[in-house]
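Sanity check. The docking grid for phenylalanine depends on where the pocket ends up, so I'm generating a full predicted complex first rather than guessing from homology. Inputs follow.
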Amino acid sequence: IKENETVINGKSFDKDEWTNVTPAILAKVNRQLHLQPKNPISIIRQLIESNFTDFKTFNEFSPVVTTKQNFDDLYIPKDHPSRTKSDNYYFNKDTVLRAHTSAHQLQGLASGENKFLISGDVYRRDEIDSSHYPVFHQIEGFFYLDNDLTKLQNELNRVQATETPNIELVDDTVIKPENPVQACHSSEASDLIAAHLKHNINTMIRNLFADEKDLKVRWIDAYFPFTSPSWEVEILYKGEWLEVLGCGVVNQKIMNGAGLDNKIGWAFGMGLERLAMVLFGIPDIRLFWSEDSRFIDQFTPGKINKFVPFSKFPPCIKDISFWLPEGEWHENDFCELIRGEAGDIVENVQLIDDFRHPKNNKRSLCYRINYRSMDRNVTNDEINEIQEKVRRVVQEQFKVELR
Ligand code: PHE
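Predicted complex below; grid placement will be based on this.
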């Protein structure tokens, strides 16, 4: 392997100033949790798929995609913040680990199917805590049909004929100028396809959460370059609204680009981890990656059951503080570096102090790193060693002055 290229699954990519994939991330690429029968991520995927009968499923598209697939094909503007290096894992300026399953919408359309689902692992640089991990899983849904009011109405009647159990579901969204019907769509057609989308999603959520008490679900307005109007669905869990899904009426440019000018469609993209955490009672997102049999043997394909925690091992907490040099500070880069050095043993990283020296105007930060293993006791000595490495690398990489 040459110094100036990255090799993944037999393909090599030249490095450039965009390259920021790390060995720790590349090690996750072939795990495919969504296809491991006993993993809750896979169980949830299958339960979702079972709500969409006659949808074709694509579950094995490669997560290594072009920036065209991940962004341009979806009309994400060149200067959109979601393209930045601090949010994504780039092989180089043209190749990236997909940040969402929407990167495969055109591949799905090219198959000729008018209803399909796409699931897979997606990658985003992020903070570190119990519900964020740089790799997670999504399932994308896509549906279209003739843009004809009678056909749209008949299809809506057909799906609405099935009633589902009750869960409090709040939707007080209305069409607004900021989240409009597309100019090329009649409001009747857009409303019909949107009603079809909402019915499908509400039914799926109700089925998934049929046994959950006191669950609250709400629809809110959203914005995506590849849909309009757009919405997000959130679920209330432990006092916090968690975003689980984005969706909307497909940008007609995407349909037209695929030669489907006279069709109208909807799409959604849903995260699987948060749903699985709620439904299986899994307290920490790192557990999905555990190879410990005490985790994976608790689950059965096709079934949702509550996770029984095995004893939680004690944490080991270390602080690191430093003076920043001039210039920008990206917390994601810092978290990435810690993950690279310490791996899944980091439970969370929290900024606990941020101040400026009144005289020299220098900024000082203090982060608290919580180390804890999922399956064993960690020793203070071993954590000290990791912390020492972290300190060294942080100093080298960010040119900070350690305190
Ligand atoms: N890709 C979006 C995301 O990851 C979700 C989405 C999919 C929104 C399809 C609209 C349509 O946030």
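Relevant for the grid: Residues 187-208 form the longest helix (22 residues).
Also worth noting: Residues 100, 102, 140, 224, 226-227, 230, 246-248, 267-269 surround phenylalanine (CB under 6 Å).
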